[in-house]
Amino acid sequence: MKVYSESIFTTERLKVSKLYHKHAIKQETCLLPRIVELLRPAVVEALPPYFQQINNEKDALRWLNTVCSESQLFAVSFKDQALLIGFLFVHEQSKSTVHIGYLLGEAYWRQGIASELLSGFIDWAKQHTSYHCLVAGLDGDNQASKRLLLKLGFSLQATSDANTQIYHYNFHLDLA
């Protein structure tokens, strides 16, 4: 499946492209069914309600419209395949602070793909944006993402919600 998009960065295995969903829907009949395949209950269980119960193309279109109205959506695929394997979400809170999130289809877990994706995004952002801080929120029970964020240099911030943990990655700390 080729997604109508603009390639933003690549890593050793991945291609990450900004998804232009209105064009993609017109051009690619495979996009909505693939979203349904990726957004399985195990993948979205700790995500907001609008990620839940994506069971058909109508649900996928609603989800896509909601996500794209709130953030920039990036399609993640392997460089040597056109198959969509996940998404990266970037919501600009300000010119210097952005909230990020990601998801990968369950078949792509535990292969180092999330680490490669976020490392690639951080490297790209350092060179091509004026971001000073990345913010990532996650469910307190998501141990894999917690370990990943800490490994990449994010730090846990104080939070009043026991169920959600907020992590920051500050670019200026890299300059020291």
Chain-wise SSE layout:
Layout: E1 5-10, E2 14-19, H1 21-27, H2 31-38, H3 41-44, H4 57-70, E3 72-78, E4 84-92, E5 97-104, H5 113-128, E6 133-139, H6 143-151, E7 155-157, E8 164-170
Parallel strand pairs: 5-6
Antiparallel strand pairs: 1-2, 2-3, 3-4, 4-5, 6-8, 7-8
Structural category is alpha+beta
**H-E order:** EEHHHHEEEHEHEE
**Major β-sheet profile:** 8 strands, mixed
Determine the mean pLDDT.
Answer: 88
Q: Say what oligomer this is.
A: single chain
Structural Rg:
16 Å
Distance between the termini: 43 Å
GO molecular function: acyltransferase activity, transferring groups other than amino-acyl groups
Domain N-acetyltransferase: 37-176
Protein name: N-acetyltransferase domain-containing protein
Organism: Agarivorans albus MKT 106
What does this structure look like?
- Helices cover 33% and strands 30% of the residues.
- It has helices spanning 21-27, 31-38, 41-44, 57-70, 113-128, 143-151; strands at residues 5-10, 14-19, 72-78, 84-92, 97-104, 133-139, 155-157, 164-170.
- With 176 residues, the protein is α+β, with helices and mostly antiparallel strands.
- The radius of gyration is 16 Å and the shape is globular.
- The model has no long low-confidence stretch (mean pLDDT 88).
- Helix 5 (113-128) links the parallel strand 5 (97-104) and strand 6.
- The chain is built from 6 helices and 8 strands; from the N terminus they run ββααααβββαβαββ.
- The protein has one domain (5-175): 3-Layer(aba) Sandwich (Aminopeptidase), CATH 3.40.630.30.
- The chain has an 8-stranded mixed β-sheet with strand order 1-2-3-4-5-6-8-7, with helices on both faces.
